[in-house]
Amino acid sequence: xxxxxxVYCSCKVIWTLLITILGYASSLPVGDDSICTAEELAKYxxxxxxxxxxxxxxxxxxxxxxxxxxxxxxxxxxxSDYSMWKKNEYASNGVRDFAEKGEAWVLMxxxxxxxxxxxxxxxxxxxxxxxxxxxxxxxxxxxxxxxxLVSFVVRIVPSPDWFVGIDSLSLCEGDHWMEEVxxxxxxxxxGTDSGFTFSSPNFAxxxxxxxxxxxxxxxxxxANSFYYPKLKILPPIAQVTMVKIKKNQLGLxxxxxNLPAKSNEIIDTVSETPLDCEVSQWSSWGLCRGICRKTGTxxxxxxxxxxxxxxxxxxxxLDEETGCEPENCV
Length: 330
Fold this sequence. Notes:
The chain has 3 helices and 16 strands. With about 325 residues, the chain is an alpha+beta fold.
Protein backbone atom coordinates (compact mmCIF):
# COMPACT_ATOMS: atom_id res chain seq x y z
CA UNK A 1 0.00 0.00 0.00
CA UNK A 2 2.81 2.41 0.86
CA UNK A 3 4.42 1.70 -2.53
CA UNK A 4 1.14 2.46 -4.28
CA UNK A 5 0.78 5.74 -2.35
CA UNK A 6 4.35 6.68 -3.28
CA VAL A 7 3.70 5.98 -6.96
CA TYR A 8 0.45 7.99 -6.81
CA CYS A 9 2.12 10.98 -5.17
CA SER A 10 5.04 10.85 -7.63
CA CYS A 11 2.65 10.83 -10.60
CA LYS A 12 0.71 13.72 -9.12
CA VAL A 13 3.88 15.80 -8.68
CA ILE A 14 5.08 15.03 -12.21
CA TRP A 15 1.65 15.89 -13.66
CA THR A 16 1.54 19.20 -11.76
CA LEU A 17 5.05 20.04 -12.94
CA LEU A 18 4.12 19.20 -16.54
CA ILE A 19 1.03 21.40 -16.42
CA THR A 20 3.11 24.28 -15.02
CA ILE A 21 5.71 23.95 -17.78
CA LEU A 22 3.07 23.78 -20.53
CA GLY A 23 1.28 26.78 -19.09
CA TYR A 24 4.47 28.79 -19.09
CA ALA A 25 5.30 27.72 -22.63
CA SER A 26 1.85 28.70 -23.88
CA SER A 27 2.33 32.22 -22.53
CA LEU A 28 5.44 32.72 -24.66
CA PRO A 29 5.14 34.29 -28.13
CA VAL A 30 5.37 31.81 -30.97
CA GLY A 31 7.27 32.07 -34.23
CA ASP A 32 10.59 33.69 -35.11
CA ASP A 33 10.08 36.67 -32.81
CA SER A 34 10.46 34.37 -29.75
CA ILE A 35 14.24 34.25 -30.30
CA CYS A 36 14.79 38.00 -30.65
CA THR A 37 17.33 39.02 -28.02
CA ALA A 38 18.16 42.46 -29.43
CA GLU A 39 17.92 45.60 -27.32
CA GLU A 40 14.34 46.20 -26.29
CA LEU A 41 13.34 49.04 -28.65
CA ALA A 42 14.39 50.20 -32.11
CA LYS A 43 13.09 52.93 -34.39
CA TYR A 44 12.99 52.81 -38.17
CA UNK A 45 12.27 55.19 -40.98
CA UNK A 46 9.98 53.46 -43.50
CA UNK A 47 9.95 54.80 -47.07
CA UNK A 48 7.34 53.59 -49.55
CA UNK A 49 8.18 54.16 -53.23
CA UNK A 50 5.52 53.81 -55.90
CA UNK A 51 6.78 52.42 -59.23
CA UNK A 52 3.42 52.23 -60.98
CA UNK A 53 4.32 54.02 -64.21
CA UNK A 54 2.75 53.88 -67.65
CA UNK A 55 6.07 52.61 -69.00
CA UNK A 56 6.20 49.62 -66.68
CA UNK A 57 2.43 48.94 -66.70
CA UNK A 58 1.04 50.31 -69.99
CA UNK A 59 -2.12 48.19 -70.14
CA UNK A 60 -5.23 50.15 -69.17
CA UNK A 61 -3.05 52.59 -67.21
CA UNK A 62 -5.42 54.96 -65.36
CA UNK A 63 -4.94 58.53 -66.55
CA UNK A 64 -8.05 60.17 -65.09
CA UNK A 65 -11.21 59.66 -62.99
CA UNK A 66 -9.11 58.96 -60.94
CA UNK A 67 -5.54 58.72 -62.24
CA UNK A 68 -3.13 56.11 -60.92
CA UNK A 69 -2.30 56.79 -57.27
CA UNK A 70 -1.72 55.20 -53.86
CA UNK A 71 -3.79 55.36 -50.70
CA UNK A 72 -2.30 56.18 -47.33
CA UNK A 73 -0.25 53.45 -45.67
CA UNK A 74 -1.62 51.72 -42.58
CA UNK A 75 0.73 49.45 -40.68
CA UNK A 76 1.43 47.80 -37.36
CA UNK A 77 4.37 46.38 -35.40
CA UNK A 78 3.41 43.18 -33.65
CA UNK A 79 4.23 39.68 -32.43
CA SER A 80 3.43 36.46 -34.26
CA ASP A 81 0.17 36.19 -32.31
CA TYR A 82 -1.33 38.80 -34.66
CA SER A 83 -1.76 38.81 -38.44
CA MET A 84 -3.04 41.81 -40.40
CA TRP A 85 -3.35 39.83 -43.64
CA LYS A 86 -1.90 36.67 -45.09
CA LYS A 87 -1.60 35.19 -48.58
CA ASN A 88 -4.01 32.29 -49.27
CA GLU A 89 -6.13 33.19 -46.22
CA TYR A 90 -9.37 35.15 -46.03
CA ALA A 91 -9.13 38.92 -45.59
CA SER A 92 -10.75 40.38 -42.50
CA ASN A 93 -13.60 42.88 -42.77
CA GLY A 94 -11.12 45.63 -42.03
CA VAL A 95 -8.73 44.62 -44.81
CA ARG A 96 -11.71 44.26 -47.17
CA ASP A 97 -12.90 47.83 -46.48
CA PHE A 98 -9.38 49.18 -46.85
CA ALA A 99 -8.63 47.29 -50.10
CA GLU A 100 -11.97 48.16 -51.70
CA LYS A 101 -12.60 51.71 -50.45
CA GLY A 102 -9.53 52.87 -48.58
CA GLU A 103 -11.52 53.10 -45.35
CA ALA A 104 -9.35 52.36 -42.32
CA TRP A 105 -11.78 52.54 -39.37
CA VAL A 106 -12.71 48.85 -39.17
CA LEU A 107 -9.09 47.75 -39.66
CA MET A 108 -7.94 50.16 -36.94
CA UNK A 109 -10.54 48.71 -34.58
CA UNK A 110 -9.36 45.15 -35.36
CA UNK A 111 -5.77 46.13 -34.58
CA UNK A 112 -6.72 47.84 -31.33
CA UNK A 113 -8.81 44.88 -30.19
CA UNK A 114 -5.93 42.47 -30.90
CA UNK A 115 -3.61 44.67 -28.86
CA UNK A 116 -6.00 44.80 -25.93
CA UNK A 117 -6.95 41.11 -25.85
CA UNK A 118 -3.65 39.30 -26.41
CA UNK A 119 -1.14 42.17 -26.22
CA UNK A 120 0.17 41.22 -29.64
CA UNK A 121 0.44 44.77 -31.02
CA UNK A 122 3.18 47.24 -30.09
CA UNK A 123 2.29 50.20 -32.29
CA UNK A 124 0.37 51.51 -35.29
CA UNK A 125 1.93 53.69 -37.99
CA UNK A 126 0.64 55.48 -41.08
CA UNK A 127 2.02 57.50 -43.97
CA UNK A 128 0.31 59.98 -46.32
CA UNK A 129 -1.20 59.01 -49.67
CA UNK A 130 0.65 59.53 -52.95
CA UNK A 131 -1.32 61.39 -55.63
CA UNK A 132 0.36 59.63 -58.57
CA UNK A 133 1.56 56.16 -59.48
CA UNK A 134 5.20 57.08 -58.92
CA UNK A 135 6.28 58.88 -55.79
CA UNK A 136 7.39 58.48 -52.20
CA UNK A 137 5.84 58.71 -48.77
CA UNK A 138 7.44 58.00 -45.41
CA UNK A 139 6.95 57.78 -41.67
CA UNK A 140 8.59 56.22 -38.62
CA UNK A 141 7.82 53.05 -36.71
CA UNK A 142 8.98 51.45 -33.48
CA UNK A 143 9.59 47.74 -32.89
CA UNK A 144 10.08 45.86 -29.64
CA UNK A 145 12.04 42.69 -28.95
CA UNK A 146 8.72 40.95 -28.21
CA UNK A 147 7.04 42.65 -31.19
CA UNK A 148 9.64 42.66 -34.00
CA LEU A 149 7.27 42.02 -36.92
CA VAL A 150 6.05 44.63 -39.39
CA SER A 151 2.89 44.45 -41.50
CA PHE A 152 1.18 47.10 -43.62
CA VAL A 153 -1.20 47.64 -46.53
CA VAL A 154 -1.42 50.31 -49.23
CA ARG A 155 -4.37 50.33 -51.60
CA ILE A 156 -3.90 50.53 -55.38
CA VAL A 157 -6.15 53.36 -56.62
CA PRO A 158 -8.23 52.85 -58.71
CA SER A 159 -8.86 49.11 -58.37
CA PRO A 160 -11.59 46.66 -57.31
CA ASP A 161 -9.81 45.34 -54.17
CA TRP A 162 -6.12 45.35 -55.02
CA PHE A 163 -3.31 46.33 -52.67
CA VAL A 164 0.36 45.95 -51.90
CA GLY A 165 1.90 45.30 -48.52
CA ILE A 166 4.06 43.25 -46.20
CA ASP A 167 2.96 40.42 -43.96
CA SER A 168 4.89 39.84 -40.71
CA LEU A 169 8.41 40.83 -41.76
CA SER A 170 10.82 40.49 -38.82
CA LEU A 171 13.38 43.28 -38.36
CA CYS A 172 15.23 41.28 -35.73
CA GLU A 173 18.12 38.93 -36.46
CA GLY A 174 18.89 37.05 -33.26
CA ASP A 175 20.68 39.52 -30.98
CA HIS A 176 20.51 42.62 -33.21
CA TRP A 177 18.21 44.74 -35.31
CA MET A 178 18.69 44.92 -39.07
CA GLU A 179 20.25 48.18 -40.25
CA GLU A 180 18.32 48.36 -43.53
CA VAL A 181 15.75 46.23 -45.34
CA UNK A 182 14.33 46.74 -48.85
CA UNK A 183 11.48 44.69 -50.30
CA UNK A 184 10.00 44.77 -53.81
CA UNK A 185 6.19 44.81 -53.71
CA UNK A 186 3.74 43.16 -56.09
CA UNK A 187 -0.06 43.47 -56.33
CA UNK A 188 -2.46 41.34 -54.30
CA UNK A 189 -6.18 40.68 -54.71
CA UNK A 190 -8.09 40.79 -51.40
CA GLY A 191 -10.58 38.20 -52.72
CA THR A 192 -13.65 40.33 -51.97
CA ASP A 193 -14.40 41.88 -55.38
CA SER A 194 -14.45 40.15 -58.77
CA GLY A 195 -13.43 43.08 -60.98
CA PHE A 196 -10.77 42.42 -63.64
CA THR A 197 -9.69 45.97 -64.45
CA PHE A 198 -8.59 49.06 -62.56
CA SER A 199 -11.92 50.79 -63.23
CA SER A 200 -14.25 47.79 -62.85
CA PRO A 201 -17.58 48.54 -61.14
CA ASN A 202 -18.19 47.05 -57.70
CA PHE A 203 -18.99 43.33 -58.02
CA ALA A 204 -18.74 41.44 -54.73
CA UNK A 205 -17.08 38.02 -54.75
CA UNK A 206 -19.59 35.54 -53.31
CA UNK A 207 -18.47 33.43 -51.59
CA UNK A 208 -15.42 35.40 -50.56
CA UNK A 209 -12.10 34.15 -51.93
CA UNK A 210 -8.69 34.13 -50.24
CA UNK A 211 -5.98 36.76 -50.68
CA UNK A 212 -3.98 35.92 -53.81
CA UNK A 213 -1.00 37.45 -55.57
CA UNK A 214 -1.75 38.97 -58.98
CA UNK A 215 0.81 37.94 -61.59
CA UNK A 216 1.38 38.51 -65.31
CA UNK A 217 -0.58 35.31 -66.02
CA UNK A 218 -3.01 35.05 -63.09
CA UNK A 219 -5.89 35.69 -63.30
CA UNK A 220 -5.51 34.12 -66.73
CA UNK A 221 -7.86 36.45 -68.58
CA UNK A 222 -6.96 38.95 -71.32
CA ALA A 223 -9.22 41.57 -69.72
CA ASN A 224 -7.15 41.62 -66.52
CA SER A 225 -5.22 44.88 -66.15
CA PHE A 226 -2.04 43.04 -65.10
CA TYR A 227 -2.24 40.34 -67.80
CA TYR A 228 1.07 40.37 -69.72
CA PRO A 229 1.45 36.85 -71.18
CA LYS A 230 4.87 37.58 -72.71
CA LEU A 231 6.43 38.37 -69.32
CA LYS A 232 7.74 35.76 -66.89
CA ILE A 233 7.09 37.99 -63.88
CA LEU A 234 5.63 41.45 -63.36
CA PRO A 235 8.06 44.26 -62.60
CA PRO A 236 7.74 45.50 -59.00
CA ILE A 237 4.85 47.94 -58.71
CA ALA A 238 6.31 49.45 -55.54
CA GLN A 239 9.16 49.11 -53.06
CA VAL A 240 9.50 49.65 -49.34
CA THR A 241 12.73 50.44 -47.48
CA MET A 242 13.15 50.43 -43.71
CA VAL A 243 16.27 52.06 -42.26
CA LYS A 244 17.18 51.84 -38.57
CA ILE A 245 17.43 55.29 -37.02
CA LYS A 246 20.71 55.64 -35.16
CA LYS A 247 20.93 57.65 -31.97
CA ASN A 248 23.30 60.60 -32.04
CA GLN A 249 25.55 61.55 -29.18
CA LEU A 250 22.75 63.41 -27.41
CA GLY A 251 20.59 60.32 -27.44
CA LEU A 252 18.20 61.74 -30.02
CA UNK A 253 17.34 59.99 -33.28
CA UNK A 254 19.31 61.16 -36.27
CA UNK A 255 16.91 61.98 -39.12
CA UNK A 256 16.97 59.96 -42.32
CA UNK A 257 17.53 62.50 -45.09
CA ASN A 258 17.55 60.44 -48.29
CA LEU A 259 14.15 61.71 -49.44
CA PRO A 260 13.11 64.16 -52.18
CA ALA A 261 13.27 67.74 -50.88
CA LYS A 262 10.57 69.40 -52.99
CA SER A 263 8.20 66.77 -54.24
CA ASN A 264 7.15 63.19 -53.74
CA GLU A 265 7.57 62.55 -57.46
CA ILE A 266 10.54 60.34 -58.28
CA ILE A 267 12.44 59.43 -61.40
CA ASP A 268 13.09 55.71 -61.59
CA THR A 269 14.79 53.66 -64.28
CA VAL A 270 12.52 50.75 -65.14
CA SER A 271 12.46 48.24 -67.93
CA GLU A 272 9.75 48.94 -70.46
CA THR A 273 6.96 46.40 -70.51
CA PRO A 274 6.00 45.66 -74.15
CA LEU A 275 2.29 45.79 -74.86
CA ASP A 276 1.00 44.10 -78.01
CA CYS A 277 -1.85 45.48 -80.06
CA GLU A 278 -5.21 43.85 -79.46
CA VAL A 279 -7.97 43.89 -82.09
CA SER A 280 -11.59 42.80 -82.19
CA GLN A 281 -13.01 39.82 -84.06
CA TRP A 282 -13.76 40.27 -87.75
CA SER A 283 -17.13 41.71 -88.65
CA SER A 284 -19.45 39.91 -91.07
CA TRP A 285 -18.64 40.25 -94.77
CA GLY A 286 -20.20 43.26 -96.40
CA LEU A 287 -22.25 43.26 -99.59
CA CYS A 288 -20.58 42.09 -102.77
CA ARG A 289 -19.92 45.08 -105.00
CA GLY A 290 -19.13 44.89 -108.69
CA ILE A 291 -20.50 44.54 -112.20
CA CYS A 292 -22.79 41.66 -113.00
CA ARG A 293 -21.15 38.60 -114.58
CA LYS A 294 -17.77 39.80 -113.35
CA THR A 295 -15.94 39.10 -110.13
CA GLY A 296 -16.75 41.65 -107.49
CA THR A 297 -15.30 42.37 -104.02
CA UNK A 298 -16.57 42.33 -100.46
CA UNK A 299 -14.93 43.65 -97.30
CA UNK A 300 -14.91 42.85 -93.61
CA UNK A 301 -13.36 44.98 -90.86
CA UNK A 302 -12.17 44.90 -87.27
CA UNK A 303 -11.09 47.62 -84.84
CA UNK A 304 -8.34 48.26 -82.30
CA UNK A 305 -9.11 47.28 -78.71
CA UNK A 306 -5.70 48.17 -77.31
CA UNK A 307 -2.97 50.27 -78.89
CA UNK A 308 0.58 48.83 -78.74
CA UNK A 309 3.20 50.39 -76.48
CA UNK A 310 6.90 50.04 -75.67
CA UNK A 311 7.81 48.20 -78.91
CA UNK A 312 4.99 45.73 -78.57
CA UNK A 313 3.57 43.90 -81.58
CA UNK A 314 1.98 46.43 -84.00
CA UNK A 315 -1.62 46.25 -85.06
CA UNK A 316 -2.47 44.02 -88.05
CA UNK A 317 -4.57 45.15 -91.01
CA LEU A 318 -8.01 46.28 -89.92
CA ASP A 319 -9.80 45.42 -93.16
CA GLU A 320 -9.76 42.43 -95.48
CA GLU A 321 -11.01 42.10 -99.06
CA THR A 322 -11.98 39.03 -101.03
CA GLY A 323 -13.52 38.20 -104.42
CA CYS A 324 -17.20 37.40 -104.79
CA GLU A 325 -20.02 37.05 -107.30
CA PRO A 326 -22.34 40.10 -107.28
CA GLU A 327 -25.90 39.12 -106.33
CA ASN A 328 -29.28 40.22 -107.62
CA CYS A 329 -27.98 40.63 -111.16
CA VAL A 330 -30.43 40.60 -114.07
